[in-house]
Structures are given as C-alpha cells and as structure tokens.
UniProtKB/TrEMBL annotation:
InterPro entries: LTTR (IPR050176), LysR_HTH_N (IPR000847), LysR_subst-bd (IPR005119), WH-like_DNA-bd_sf (IPR036388), WH_DNA-bd_sf (IPR036390)
Family of the protein in this entry: Belongs to the LysR transcriptional regulatory family.
Organism, as annotated: Pandoraea cepalis
Protein name as annotated: LysR family transcriptional regulator
Annotated SUPFAM superfamilies: Periplasmic binding protein-like II (SSF53850), Winged helix' DNA-binding domain (SSF46785)
Keywords assigned: DNA-binding, Transcription, Transcription regulation
Length: 295
C-alpha cells in the first residue's frame, strides 16, 4: 500500500522547476522571462502552479527583487539536482552541450592568461558552453544585475560591493615613451568616459599636486587608451598588465601618488549552477597569482 501511495504522488514538471530556478538566479521575473524567452506573466504562472503543487509559498516578491523563502530554498536544492540528472541523461545519450555559462570580464582580461585559463576549463568540462563578454565594469555589473550574465570579474572601489572573492588592483601611471606629455601645462589626460574607472582619481591627484589638467582624449576601449597615450595624446592610469613597450611608467619621481583604491572582484549568485561555481574557483585561483609588474 505504501508503494502504491507513493506512485500516486504528483510528479514535478521540470519546466516549472527550471522557471523557478531562473527567477531565483536572476532575482526578478522580468530578467527570468528574458532568459527563458518567455513572458513575465507566463513565468509567474508557472511559479504559482509550483506553489499550488507543494502547498507552500516559494518566493518572496519584494519591491526591487525576488528571493526564495525557506521552503523555496529547500525546493531549489532538489530542483537543481533533478535538472542536473536530466541534463546528465541527455549528455550520456547525445554528448551534447548541456550547460551554458555566461561570463563577463574587463577588456584587459579578454586575452592572454585569461583565455588560456578558459580554454583549459573548456577542455576539462567539454559539456560546458562558455559565452564570454568583455567591456567596462559598470556595463558588466548592469548586465549581471539584469540576469544577463551568470558570473562576472569586474573592477570596483575596494569594498563597495560584497563579492565572492577579490584582490587589490595595482595601477600604473603611463606616458608616451617617444612623445612624453607629462611636462605640458595643462597636463593632457587620456581617460575613460565620465564616471569611468580611474578618471576622478587622476584628476584629484593632479589637483593635489597643484597641476592644471585637461581631458585630451576619451575612450570606452582600453586599446584606445593605450594607443592614445603611446602616440603622445596625454598620460593615463591603467593596470600594469596594460602597460605597453611604447609607454613610459611614471610615479613618485614625478610626484605622482600610488593609487590603491581599486580591487578586482568576482561575483556570482549564491544559487548559481555548479559549473558557474567551478569556473569561479578557477578565476579565483587565477587572481591569486602574482600580477605582472610594469616594465
């Protein structure tokens, strides 16, 4: 009789489970609907059907975000296992890609050591499809908050937002080796756009020194910043890994201060997929290596 009773229990619909997991990961119904290529009302209906099925409220709907209740957290853990088993069955039968991890990194991490690390990760987990986006940290943050990225490595002011892991970001003042401009009055600055990283720190440093300054070149691209400085458009502030042979590194000898207000930080959601967390560990290990000093 006990076995018969168990067989009469309702079965969980994996589509409903995928919907509530996506809402929990994204933190909103709107972002979840976009990721699922559905509508907000449809996703909301699926969550309500699941709540009716289990007889518990699974999500708390706040003014700005959505988070799981205690019952929801318990369900999410089992739901992820069920979907993982479902994916494993498909993997065993077809060998198809079963997990997509959407990663965001700053432009200066889009090549070199980072791509080597990502390639090794892909060889270790061939079932994972990596989708990597590079850009300004503020844009990556915005995409992450909208649920469009699963994992981000970004630059921020130290401690401004709690992260999974972080490392101080050293910075180097650079000028052109062939056509130096630090001696000009006013000092020409090559910067990211307004509200971009390092811009305010550069201006404050020069004003503290009593130097006049002007913005001579603005670019959203790190390569644009690097090229403009190398060609003599002005000085700038960049990570040591972005210093090129055509640059001259400035510092205390020129009266410029050390800027140490920034950090590299890694973010993913607490309920992220196991493969997202696995990749995060790889990135944490990469950050733990000693950064290259400017030449």
């Amino acid at each position: 009789m006990a076995g018969s009773a168990k067989s009469n229990r309702p079965l969980f619909d994996l589509d409903l489970l995928r919907s509530i997991i996506t809402v929990a990961d994204c933190g909103s119904f709107t972002a979840a609907a976009a990721r699922l290529h559905s509508t907000q009302s449809t996703v909301s209906q699926k969550v309500r059907r699941l709540e009716d099925l289990v007889g518990h409220k699974l999500l708390e709907r706040g003014n700005r975000d959505v988070h799981a209740t205690d019952a929801g957290e318990r369900l999410l853990g089992h739901a992820r296992q069920m979907l993982a088993l479902n994916d494993q069955m498909f993997e065993a039968l077809s060998g198809a890609v079963i997990v997509t991890v959407r990663l965001g990194v700053p432009e200066d991490f889009a090549t070199g050591a980072t791509t080597q690390v990502l390639a090794r990760f892909n060889r270790q987990y061939p079932q994972v499809k990596l989708e990597v986006t590079s850009g300004l940290s503020r844009d990556l943050f915005a995409s992450y908050d909208r649920g469009e990225l699963d994992l981000v490595l970004v630059k921020q002011r130290r401690g401004s937002r709690e992260s999974v892991a972080s490392r101080p970001e050293k910075l180097a003042w650079i000028d052109s080796a062939a056509h130096p401009s630090f001696g000009c009055d006013p000092v020409p600055l090559v910067t990211f756009p307004a509200r971009g990283l390092y811009r305010d720190d550069m201006i404050q440093a020069l004003e503290t020194m009593g130097r006049d300054w002007r913005i001579s070149f603005t670019s959203s691209s790190l390569s644009g910043i690097q090229g403009a400085v190398a060609d003599g458009m002005g000085i700038s502030l960049v990570p040591p890994r972005a210093v090129l042979p055509r640059h001259a590194v400035l510092g205390r000898a020129q009266g410029l201060p050390v800027i140490d207000a920034f950090e590299l930080a890694i973010f993913h959601r607490p309920t992220a997929h196991a493969m997202v967390m696995a990749l995060a560990k790889v990135l944490v290990a990469m950050l733990a290596t000693k950064p290259r000093a400017p030449k």
